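tool=predict chain=A
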Amino acid sequence: MYALIGTCALNDIDPRAYLDYVLTHIADHKINCIEELLPWRVANKMHTRASPPNPAT
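tool=predict ok
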């Protein structure tokens, strides 16, 4: 879990959203293309983590 959370953080992905995405897509995904579900491959398909509000604005 720590590695999953860290990898998601490096790719600016919410870990819970990533797990939801993977678990909903893995059953229909071809086994020989499973690397397409890695965090850095799906980052552009997912909503990225919201940035914290800027108090200066």
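The CA atoms of residues 16 and 22 lie 10 Å apart. The two ends are 36 Å apart (CA to CA).
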